[in-house]
């Protein structure tokens, strides 16, 4: 365990010293400044494409080269799209003749390796059992990205099965993709399960990436990779042909370097889909999707009430490290100075929630059904696996799945539970969750106080919104100080806490309140710009200017 970690650490350090150079200030060709890809935003890319400074073809080549430059250290991308350059050329031709599909036209985006595409790429959740499997069409997420003109550049590594297999694995590890590392400290835990999406977005290996969340899998890797992450209301984004954990909790959202870029991506992927009934509860079905980009408003806090769940902060005190708590307390002052009234917004069912395991019952029950449904959608299923019992059998006997070193404890629990989401016991557990997250959680706190959102350190923000399906945005809040003592993760192979590791601030709201949360995230981001305070230890050297003919 230890020696394995040290090997990774030394490898990372030696590569880092080869790659880290003096700050890059951009390259000037014919009087034009090429943007630096670690900090470029969508609007700057669109300017460059429209002015002819570079093409989408150039962009794809640059991003692919950057991926190859750091992949052997960070393992953040599992597959590149072999058609990406062809697609880029087509989109360049369309732009040249005046057809632009929208702001994402010709912009490379990475997606997590549990979101299916109907092309040459595999959709595996990191398992060898799904390498070679075929789906009947694009997932709705992939279809919406293509319709918006985005180029799906590749698939990102993840905690295997979105972290729903093992009781003793590590974040960002999958059998198919290996161990993902984050870029702010050698050997850094990338968190998960959208680990590769977080790392890739943080160092500019695409404009941004999509992740998925059941309980923390967008928010947590966004936090430790210094990103903005939006975990949408369950049902805002379609889960059709996304490898599931739970129909009641799964959701897909953007992970980007700025709030506005995340808003652009959310605009493209949100909306009702007949292939996912949960999306039909979206109020936009009777109107139109809000304008998330226009919601980026510097004055969003003016005249609003923002809640602080003091009893949750107190109960979770031991999980909030002093630098995070200090930064959070300062954030309360900053939000007040930006025009908000700060109110106590306690979660009254929180103590009871901490002693309940209803969420596990719900997730297990959903997983048994939803996984079988995903298998049944496949048009080619290489091992003919149809349900969780068979998947466990495969995983325990296929050598590359690293069993029993990484166990199947979560599945053992689900199979032992035995009953699924058609059972009356499911409804009892689910109703308890709806209380803990609803009246006893975020929704009750908002209703009682008339607050527009509750703010919380991201490290403790995902749980309550997860069980009730409500939205959260996380934005950069700060970094652990340079003299922080390194603490390893439970598995012993990753740096969980250490110098320069980023952390985040969450705003959580009522269902379908994404536009308002984006406003708060933007207003906070624009006042602080903490993202720029610390650079990753590992940044690709290759830049767009290297590929422009
Ligand atoms: C990642 O790195 C490995 C090892 O250098 C290489 O073989 C592989 O092709 C790379 N994959 C991608 C998608 O860049
Ligand atoms: C523009 O180019 C696209 C892609 O090559 C093509 O499908 C479309 O018909 C062209 N439109 C015009 C107006 O030429
Ligand atoms: C998908 O998996 C197949 C089977 O292993 C492999 O041949 C193919 O190269 C993979 N696709 C990509 C884009 O890596
Ligand atoms: C949506 O709900 C309807 C009515 O219950 C059902 O017939 C249909 O199969 C569902 N569709 C999906 C994609 O789950
Ligand atoms: C849409 O409007 C119909 C008719 O008024 C209503 O029954 C339905 O609940 C509405 N749906 C949503 C998601 O608001
Ligand atoms: C919220 O909880 C904190 C800590 O438990 C407590 O001190 C405070 O009085 C509570 N606020 C309200 C308005 O109940
Ligand atoms: C689920 O929640 C209910 C209601 O609070 C509680 O009585 C029950 O003990 C919980 N179940 C478990 C297994 O924690
Ligand atoms: C769910 O449980 C029901 C009732 O026990 C059973 O008939 C059904 O086959 C189960 N579904 C799955 C996918 O296991
Ligand atoms: C698991 O594998 C064993 C040995 O190949 C087989 O006998 C058994 O039927 C399998 N069980 C399931 C649920 O697939
Ligand atoms: C993980 O748990 C399994 C089963 O308890 C055990 O065999 C294995 O050694 C554990 N792995 C590690 C790294 O501790
Ligand atoms: C880190 O430095 C700060 C400021 O000098 C100091 O207050 C703190 O105790 C130091 N922490 C450690 C772990 O050495
Ligand atoms: C496809 C790909 O790049 N896979 C790499 C993932 O990471 C492992 C190491 O953990 C490499 O061996 C693979 O080549």
TrEMBL record:
Keyword Signal: yes
Keywords annotated in UniProt: Signal
Signal peptide location: 1-18
Domain Amidase: 58-356
The keyword Membrane is assigned to this record: no
One Pfam assignment: Amidase
PANTHER family found in the cross-reference section: AMIDASE, OS04G0183300 PROTEIN
Full protein name: Amidase domain-containing protein
